[in-house]
Amino acid sequence: MSRPENIDATVLPRIEPSEGSLTQRVHHVLKHAILSLDFPPGANLRKAPLCERLGVSRAPVADAIARLASEGLVDVVPQSGTRVSYFSMDEIREGVFLREALELATVAKVARDLTDDQRKQLSRNMRLQELLIEDDDIPGFYQADEDFHGLLMEFTGFRRLADVAQTVSLQVSRARILLLPTPGRIVETLAEHQTIFEAISNRDEHAAQNAMRAHLGQLMPRIEQLEQQKP
Amino acid sequence: MSRPENIDATVLPRIEPSEGSLTQRVHHVLKHAILSLDFPPGANLRKAPLCERLGVSRAPVADAIARLASEGLVDVVPQSGTRVSYFSMDEIREGVFLREALELATVAKVARDLTDDQRKQLSRNMRLQELLIEDDDIPGFYQADEDFHGLLMEFTGFRRLADVAQTVSLQVSRARILLLPTPGRIVETLAEHQTIFEAISNRDEHAAQNAMRAHLGQLMPRIEQLEQQKP
DNA sequence: ACTTGTCAACTAACATGTTAGAATGCTAAT
DNA sequence: ATTAGCATTCTAACATGTTAGTTGACAAGT
User: Fold this and answer.
1) pLDDT digit string (tens) for B29-57?
2) Distance from the CA of B102 to the CA of which of A54, A137, B150, B177 falls in 20 to 30 A?
3) Mind listing the pLDDT tens digit for each residue in B160-173?
4) 3-class state of residue A171 by DSSP
5) Do B72 and A168 touch (CB under 8 A)?
6) Which nt is closest to the CA of A80, judged by C1'?
7) How distant, in Å, are the alpha carbons of A122, A183, A202 from that of A194?
8) What is the C-alpha separation between A111 and A203, in angstroms, rounded?
């Protein structure tokens, strides 16, 4: 066992491909590392190693860290250091609350204004989900799951919505990594998605909201159950 | 008439008091100037004058501008310039949508978990609102209005909620500046607040949500009506 | 053993120099 | 008169030097 505060491992995607500003790329790389728990909570980020590893100067790294701080993924102590933030049960609860608020409003609006083309896209996604479960492709299903929710938000016509939803539930995303994939849960998830899809297809706002509430309501208990072992 | 793109006026709060980091202070000052429309949409922010005016170097100004960009208040064109963002009707609609989603979830939770002390605080705020209307103190009422909504969010126990709500509806805040204070509207607002307050006091989630929906629903038509004259 | 004071090392925050790309105005050619 | 090329002059983005504050270790005193 080492100190409670460990240094960051230098296992980052190494190269920086050539697209977007340096700040954006650095931010993306660090964000991914934190969300995937490659950088564990409490690890302190030191600028110098990051600069050396990524082959950039301190300015873009500092900018990227500032953005991470505003997203709540790191805690920066002035004149001292920057640490990957812990995520408390309170923060997760807040993330779930915010996420649910947005998803419920989303699903209501989509059920109200659904176009034929949108219905077709959702239908295609649903069939993809079934297919991936038949093939036992867990990561694939996980992706299709996110796409499903992403499609709904896209259909509202509000551009920032998906970003906001993702930002407010970043801590939840981190916690979800720790959830082991429960076999039965996948099938349940599909069934819940189908219920949501059907309610939307019927343009039944109320039913769609209830279905979404039931769907999202499954998450919190599983995280709380996990809390018995982790900080 | 000058060019469609005007330079920023150097009428900023001049001095920088001594609290918080420079970046934070600069960010706060600029944000206020943008939200109050002292910096009109389309005006381009030039770093040099700002640095000179505020007596700081370019680094904190750059950081502050980066934060404003992530909030959507400015559009930064790489290697070219930074302009105060326009706010389109679409963005305002999105802000209202997001705001409503959060307020509805908030009011439901508060109605569910209200404590005696919280009820007392809300009651005090309601009486303050009545008082301020009697005294014809419009700015005072505006502040009490914001406090009312702020209290509700505070009572959820979620710390970031108020920040998120404010951030997602920044464009709405800017648009609201343009709304002339309609005399009758103030009294209506008070009545709507009272309806919300009563529903919460009765711990009636559903009624509280409906009352809040009705309250927030008043805003959008007034902004759309304003659109007939402005870009 | 435990506290307390000092100091050295490290950090983010800030200042400033450098670079590359975009916009604008000018000139020249059609 | 209109447009195409060119150069000047902006800008943000990036690199790097400087400063001041925090931390942690060690030593001295209790």
Assistant:
1) 999 999 999 898 988 888 888 888 888 99
2) B177
3) 999 999 999 999 99
4) helix
5) no
6) C11
7) 10, 18, 12
8) 5
Any CB–CB contact under 8 A between A159 and chain B? yes
Cα distance between residue A158 and residue A67, in whole Å: 23
What is the C-alpha separation between A119 and A126, in angstroms, rounded? 10
- From chain B, the residues in CB contact with A98 under 8 A are 102, 105, 158, 160-161, 164
CA angle B94, B100, B105 (to 5 degrees): 135
User: Nearest nt (C1') to A21 (CA)?
Assistant: D13
Q: Which residue of A has its CA nearest to B70?
A: A67
The CA distance from B50 to B27, in Å, is 12
Asked if B140 and B163 count as a contact pair (C-beta separation under 8 A), the reply is no
Count helices and strands (H / E) in chain A. 11, 3
**Inter-CA distances, B189 with A191, B217, B220, Å:** 44, 11, 14
What pTM, to 2 d.p., does this model score?
0.91
Query: Rounded mean pLDDT of chain B?
Result: 90
B144 touches chain A (CB under 8 A): no
Plot region of B203 (φ>0 → left; ψ -120 to 50 → alpha; else → beta): left
In this prediction, residue A186 carries a pLDDT of 92
In whole angstroms, give the CA distance from residue A227 to residue B174: 42
Q: What backbone torsions phi and psi does residue A3 show, to the nearest 5 degrees?
A: -60, 155
Q: Give the residue from A152, A158, A160 showing the smallest Cα distance to A199.
A: A152
- Rounded Cα distance between A46 and B23, Å, is 20
